[in-house]
Specification:
This protein has 2 domains: 55 residues, Arc Repressor Mutant, subunit A, CATH 1.10.10.60; 120 residues, Tetracycline Repressor, domain 2 (Orthogonal Bundle). It is built from 10 helices and no strands. The radius of gyration is 19 Å and the shape is elongated.
């Protein structure tokens, strides 16, 4: 088995630590200890904790989100969203800790322009990808053309983040599916019989 290089190990451990504990509560020392990497090795790859976390967001978090939010364009928007919610309900980390991007965005966007710019760009990409799927159904005559596809795509993301931001005590797969069912029913009401 190939040994993982130091940079990759640091990114993986940083993803886990920041996802569970948040940026402010994750120390470089904790990351180094879990990665079993000396401090000098970290600074060989990253100038600071911020640079390490920015790299982790780009190289670990965003690829995971892209894979997770890969909306199947052969399905209707309704089916794609239904499948996405079902996949979310099966992801234990997501149910327990919520959306990692949303958590970081809430924590860092108000205080750091670099993180804010990066999160705004990704948020826009998520909205646009779902908007395109909705527009495909409008063009096919499946969805009412009065549906504002951009606003509805934004609503879906905001609502999903809201459901996923509940405390672990209130969060469960069952509750996620129950709450997101309202989103699906609203979308269904725009489909033409």
């Amino acid at each position: 088995m190939k040994k993982q290089n130091t940079r990759e190990k640091l990114l993986d451990i940083t993803f886990q630590e920041v996802y569970i504990n948040g940026y402010a509560s994750t120390s470089v020392d904790a990351i180094l200890k879990k990665a079993a990497v000396p401090k000098g090795s970290m600074y060989h790859h990253f100038k600071s904790k911020k640079e390490l976390v920015l790299a982790m967001v780009k190289e670990r978090l965003y690829p995971k989100m892209d894979e997770f939010f890969k909306l199947n364009s052969t399905n209707s928007a309704y089916e794609a969203l239904e499948n996405l919610f079902l996949a979310m309900s099966k992801n234990r980390m997501l149910i327990t800790y919520g959306c990692p991007m949303y958590r970081l965005m809430v924590e860092l966007s108000p205080v750091d322009k670099d993180f804010d710019n990066m999160f705004v760009e990704k948020y826009t990409q998520l909205v646009d990808s779902f908007k395109i799927l909705l527009q495909k159904d409008v063009k096919a005559g499946l969805l009412d053309s009065k549906l504002d596809t951009k606003e509805f795509a934004s609503f879906v993301i905001h609502s999903t983040w809201g459901v996923l931001s509940l405390s672990p005590t209130l969060s469960s797969s069952k509750n996620l599916l129950k709450d997101t069912d309202y989103i699906l029913q609203l979308l269904k009401s725009y489909y033409i019989d």
